[in-house]
Structure formats: structure tokens, C-alpha cells
Amino acid sequence: MNRQQVLVFIDAMKTNFPVRTLCRVLGIGHSTYYASAARGHGPTAAELAEAYRADAARDAWAEHRGVYGARRLTAEIRSRGHTWNRKHVARLMRLTSIEGAHRRRRGKYGKRSVTTATAPDLVERHFTAEAPDRLWVADITYLRIWEGFLYLAVVVDAFSRRIVGWAMADHLRTELILDAVGMAIQRRRPEPGTIHHSDRGTQYTSYEFGKSLRASGLLASMGRVGSAFDNAMAETTFATLKTELVYRRAWASRHELEMEVFSYIEGFYNSRRRHSRLDNLSPLDYEQRYLTQKQVSA
């Protein structure tokens, strides 16, 4: 029995046994019983306040696709005017039986290849940029569905971690990545010299793709074969998307998953999802803060 049930039991048995005896046997202070009886065994003010906090935490968690753990949920709740710390939020999550999305364990990455890349590695694992559209990272992944696979190509801005271009298809032809980088170019209109970093997949080393980059003024950069660390930012983006969306259920059709990936990228990841590396801001808010500070200092 929980405490509330014990108090009600004592209330029912007090005509047969002394209250103090019942309290001693059941491990409840007699003052606790009398205080509870005075309010009709209803919840205390503290319990009501805790229930309110628990509801607020669950609402914030649900509004962000149920993927936030204690750290990001704390940042979200603080942005709403509450001052609860991370330990308090973690306790509320336990109380309401909610948890964040967790990444699957992966095996160790293979050793680096000594093969020379088609384009030089201009990044060398330094996935940082001082401003938007200085460095883009790109990659392709597959998403499993009942019908087979859906392939997703993305272009991520290293400054804000915003997915600036993406494309989906049921094939791995070069058109897939051309569509993704084409979206990024159309949306961002980058100045000549923006670095486009990828792995050495056959799509990225194709003549057609290299020609497209050169025509747009982008500088090609490629990591080495067999080293996911050389394109770690893109790998991290895919891991986040799969953990928070793809792995949470089975997908019957490509169309169904395509619609959800679109909603996740444009309706959540870019505009609302908090990133710890971005001061717990979303990519959109992080870029907006940069532009505002730039205007003020100009």
C-alpha cells in the first residue's frame, strides 16, 4: 500500500483500534495521520505542486516528440520561466515514467585507410565554423522499412548544425546527392569558397557531382575511406534522426516514412530541437542570434 492507502486504512480501522497503535504498526506518524484527516485525506499543497510540475514536464516532453532527456528537457522548462534544476527534472521524469530517446550501441569503426582521397581533406575533423555557410558536411544513410530501404542524403551547416539540404529516394544514384546539395544551394546562396565535406562514396566522387560543386563555387573536401570519424558531424546527425524518429517504430511504406522525415527535419530538428553544442538553442535560433549580434556590432 502507498501512504495514501495506509492513511485511509487507519481511518477505517480507528473505531476498532487506537489511532496511535495503528500508526506505530503501519509506520506512519500520528501527526501525519491527523493532518491528513483534517483535509479529508486529500493531497497536500506540496503534492499538488509536485503534480503540477510533473504535468508541466510531461507536456514539454510530449511537445518535443518525446525525445528529450533530462538535460534538454531542463533547458526547455527553464525557457518557460521555471527554475527547476536537472536533478529535479530527472526526478519528475521518473515520477511520470518518461525518458528520452537513447542511441543504439555501435561497433568500433574500422582503421583509417591510407588511400589518397579524390579531393583533399580540408576539414581534418575540425567541424567548426565561425559563421553560417562556411562549412557544409554531407552524407547518405539508409532507413529500413517493410518495403526495403529509403535512402536519405543531407547537407548540414557546421556552424549551426542546421540541415540546409536533404533528399530522399529509393535508389543510391548520384541524383540523390545532387538534389540534396541543390536544395542547400538554392536555400542558402553561399558565397564562393564554402567547403562541402563528405566521405569518398562513389556518388560524391562522381564526375557529375564534382562538376556541380565547381559550377556553384563550392570547394570539395573528402575524408578517408573507412573512417566515420572523418565525417563525424554527418554521422551524428543521422544517429540523432534514427534514435529520435526511425528506431522508435516500424515503418510500413516509403511514403509514410518520407512524410515523417520531412516533418522531423523541417518541423522539429531545424526549428525547435535544442542542441547542447548550441547553448541549448535550436539551429534556427542559433543562427538568428548570430545575425542579431552581427547587426548590433556593425
UniProtKB/TrEMBL annotation:
<dbReference type="InterPro" id="IPR001584">
    <property type="entry name" value="Integrase_cat-core"/>
</dbReference>
<dbReference type="GO" id="GO:0003676">
    <property type="term" value="F:nucleic acid binding"/>
</dbReference>
<dbReference type="InterPro" id="IPR036397">
    <property type="entry name" value="RNaseH_sf"/>
</dbReference>
<dbReference type="Pfam" id="PF13276">
    <property type="entry name" value="HTH_21"/>
</dbReference>
<dbReference type="Pfam" id="PF13333">
    <property type="entry name" value="rve_2"/>
</dbReference>
<dbReference type="InterPro" id="IPR025948">
    <property type="entry name" value="HTH-like_dom"/>
</dbReference>
<dbReference type="InterPro" id="IPR012337">
    <property type="entry name" value="RNaseH-like_sf"/>
</dbReference>
<dbReference type="InterPro" id="IPR050900">
    <property type="entry name" value="Transposase_IS3/IS150/IS904"/>
</dbReference>
<comment type="function">
    <text>Involved in the transposition of the insertion sequence.</text>
</comment>
<feature type="domain" description="Integrase catalytic">
    <location>
        <begin position="128"/>
        <end position="291"/>
    </location>
</feature>
<dbReference type="Pfam" id="PF00665">
    <property type="entry name" value="rve"/>
</dbReference>
<dbReference type="InterPro" id="IPR048020">
    <property type="entry name" value="Transpos_IS3"/>
</dbReference>
<protein>
    <submittedName>
        <fullName>IS3 family transposase</fullName>
    </submittedName>
</protein>
<dbReference type="GO" id="GO:0015074">
    <property type="term" value="P:DNA integration"/>
</dbReference>
